Amino acid sequence: MIRTLAFLAATAMTGNALAATSGFVERSLAVHGKTYRYQVFVPASLEGHPAVVLFLHGSGERGSDNRKQLTQGLPHWLDDHPDFPAVVVVPQVPDGQEWTDRDNADMAMAALDHAIEDFHGDRHRLYLTGLSMGGYGSWQLAVDHPGIFAAAAIICGGVTSLSDERSLYVHGVPDGADAFDWTAKKIGKLPVWIFHGGADDVVPTEQSRRMHAALEKRHAVVKYTEYPGVGHGSWDKAYAEPDLWRWMFGHRR
After folding, report:
1. pTM of this structure
2. What is the mean pLDDT of the chain?
């Protein structure tokens, strides 16, 4: 359970979230002695125990301004969909770091936990999504926290390393193991919808194809959408898919 993150001693630095207006609101927390700022999208009509979505941004949105992570993917899509029926948590990775780094993975989960508490989120309806570097991070969180999320949408992400100079890969794979089969086994019964551009020259499309095949081999609940001729920026098409959120929110833990 997310409660196991209590050892982080993550402390909220803001006032009562329930007093916030709709749209994006800024939050901050301390994890492992470091302070991180993040954003939370609050639905226009917040009531009851809402679903909560954790969004992980890509490499180009890294920083410490707590703004760049809103410019691509789901947060950008939300600008035109203020009636989106869920709380969305949008943390930010510092420059030069990865979502698969342990501190940042812990920070993302701590931000999610704080948002659940602040907005009385439904722990049976927690959802995970990310793009590019955030797609890698999504696979990592799914591996590290099986049973937490009800469903995931992973866009142009991957599992194995693209460069010896980066720690961007799913960590924990035993020596000699097939990383895709191991990841599929670790995430268990998590329903996943995978998206990728067929002409992606940044994260090879083969990364998603192999994860899809590994999940199908285990008879998992998995969907795969590949956009022919589309390069790395496949997230605009993915988040605009008319059935995406109906499919996501159709799953409960």
Report:
1. 0.92
2. 92
